[in-house]
């Protein structure tokens, strides 16, 4: 799964312009679906959210492409917000069923535990902060739903996080994606974006491992 995800990311910068040329405005529907699924369906945490948004921004900056930056910001923010809302409802109504052992093939306990730890540590702000962390951003709304977080509180951080995540990624691509150095090493930039966004989760997991011996002694 991970290998396939990496391969799809590395081919995005070649595939997406071809799809735009062939299907035009219909590509917006495809982009909406990908962002919605990545944030809204808890079994698809490896879809290329960050890199796809960055690439869309860089293509929107090229006049020969048909992507409009304003449409991207509005449409994909709505996709991110709607996705998290659906994920929250799944967690709230089906969470205890989906966390049973027979579902562990699809819902990896490791990722779920990391999301639970992140949510416990940061509380409501985890909904916002988790947006910028691949994998965790897919599990955080699910975890919030399982924990019966009040929806009124959830939707506030959901909207703020969805708009901020999409805006940062798309505008970064719009302003920096067509710099000569970035274009020459686009595949490496995509991988770097993923690695950098995963860094907070890695640091959190490492810190938790270091804290375990101290907890065990107590």
From TrEMBL:
Keywords for this protein: Cell membrane, Membrane, Transmembrane, Transmembrane helix
Protein name according to UniProt: VTT domain-containing protein
Species, as recorded: Loigolactobacillus binensis
Transmembrane residue ranges: 25-47, 67-86, 154-176, 188-206
One Pfam family hit: VTT_dom
Lineage of source species: Bacteria, Bacillati, Bacillota, Bacilli, Lactobacillales
Places the protein is found: Cell membrane
Source organism superkingdom: Bacteria
InterPro entries named in the record: DedA-like, VTT_dom
Topology class, membrane: Multi-pass membrane protein
Domain VTT: 47-174
Family: Belongs to the DedA family.
